[in-house]
Each structure stands twice: as structure tokens, then as C-alpha cells.
Amino acid sequence: MLGPVILAASRSDRMRRLISAAPVTKRVVDRFIPGETVDGVLPIVRELTDNGLELTMDVVGEDITTPEQAEAARDAYLELIDRLKPLELGERAEMSVKLSMFGQALPGGHELALANVRPVVEAAAEIGTTVTLDAEDHTTLDSMFAIHEELRKDVPGTGCVIQAYLFRTEEDARRLAAAGSRVRLVKGAYKEPAEVAYQQKHEIDKAYVRILRTLMEGEGYPMIGSHDPRLIAIAQELARTAGRKLDEYEFQMLYGIRSEEHLRLAAEGHRMRVYTAYGTDWYGYFMRRLAEKPANLRFFVRSMITKG
């Protein structure tokens, strides 16, 4: 399987330099990351919302090594919120954050990340939108869930992400499927050991369906993070069986992947949210997109061969 190899490359400084220097890289990266600055991405926000789509916006960057960098990440999100305010999009443009960007891995990281993310969550609430805490590798999750619980005391709409490939997630889903919760379910995009995660696609898919059923039958708001046509169809059936209306759950897909499906689901009346990342520190995000789906890797290699 190429996925683990690509994920290993995502942590290699040598591979980072090699791929970043390739002439074709920017053209391919632009497929997944439509801008490096707020000014560069705002036209995409307008285009997507004009087409009936919603967004969750991510300022990319995870290699935080100092408290000052964590504060800079906080300030980047606060700038984004300030620029979104006059657009009056409300929850049609929410934000996703990785707590690693807010200093979670630094000494005293749990408290540091909470202190940095809190003003972002509060500022988002002031303009009528929300923040979702992304899931990262399994060693960070207890901290993430504790921060999520703390933030929800003052901003109940704060969401979180759970990953179907982890053994723990079915229990997490039962706990989180409560009234007022917002939970995004994804398959998972980090290299995890066999002791904590399913390794085979069919096992992950079956776990995804079991967990999604728990969320649909619960009292919270499920967010289906998948591009898999079969899982999307199953999600629609689970929603019907659970008696959910179209505005009581949503689909989420990545910018640049299956864009026609985004529009199709929105045209059918579904809430369809596009995960839209921007920023200059794109390498780790880009490599995980390649690892998630062989078609993404083929697209990159073909582009290097034909245009490099």
C-alpha cells in the first residue's frame, strides 16, 4: 500500500524540499489549496457560496515549534474571521482547526492550545459561525476531546472530528451523539499502528457505517466527511431511516475533489460543505491528500510527467 509510504514522506524534510522545488508542484497543489492568503481565498468563498455550497476553512500548517508560532496561527484565524464578518455568511463559512497549530505538542501544550484556540472559537461565535476541532494522530485525541468539552461550556456549537479507523471511535461516537453536538466522521488520514487502528479498507468502511448509524440515531448533528459514493448513498439511507430532515446533517468533501458531486448534492437540497484550506505551509496537508486516494497520487505523477 502506497498510503503509509506517502505519509512517511510527509514527515521527511528531504522529500519536502524535493517536492516543493518541483516546477509542477504549484500547479498540482492549486487543485487542493486555492490560495496562500486571505485575499487569495476570499474569491473562492464567494464562488462556492454563490453556487449553494458551504465551507469549512482551514489555515494550513502543523509544524509548530515555538509558542510564538502558535500565537501566529491564532492570529491568522482571527484575521480570517475579521475578513469573513462583512460577508455575513454566518455558519455557511465555518472554520476547522488543528490543535497542533495552537501549540498542543509544546511543553504545557494542552493549556497552551486551549488558551490560543478559545479566542478563535469565541470570535467565530460572534459572527454567527462555528469552529470544528480536527482529529490528528491518536496520541493527541484525549487532549482534543477535553478541549472540545471545555469550549462547549461557553460555545456549545463547537464541533469535533472522529476517525473511523480507530478502535476507540465507536465508543467516542456513542458519547458524542448527544443533543447539540456537531461531529464530523472521517475515515482517517494518519499512519496508525495495528494496535489502535484498522489497517484494511473493508474493515474501515464497515466501522464507518457502524459509527455513522450511531450518529444518525443520536441527537447531535452528523457531518459526513467522505468522497466515497457508496458511503454517501448509505449515509442518505441511514438519514432517512433515522427520520432526519435534509438540514439535520451535512456532507463534507475536500476542495478540488469530486467538485461535480458537491454541486449535485447541493442541488438535491443537501447541505454540502467544502473543506477549503489555504496558506503557505501546505506540504503536510498536500501529502495526506495524496495518501488518502490513489487517484490523487496518479494525478500528481501524471502532471509531473506531462508538465514538469
From TrEMBL:
InterPro entries: FAD-linked_oxidoreductase-like, PRODH_bac_arc, Proline_DH_dom, Proline_oxidase. Pfam families: Pro_dh (PF01619). It comes from the Bacteria. Keywords: FAD, Flavoprotein, Nucleotide-binding, Oxidoreductase, Proline metabolism. It catalyses: L-proline + a quinone = (S)-1-pyrroline-5-carboxylate + a quinol + H(+). Residues 45-299 form the Proline dehydrogenase domain. Its EC number is 1.5.5.2. Pathway: Amino-acid degradation; L-proline degradation into L-glutamate; L-glutamate from L-proline: step 1/2. This is proline dehydrogenase. It comes from Streptomyces griseoincarnatus.
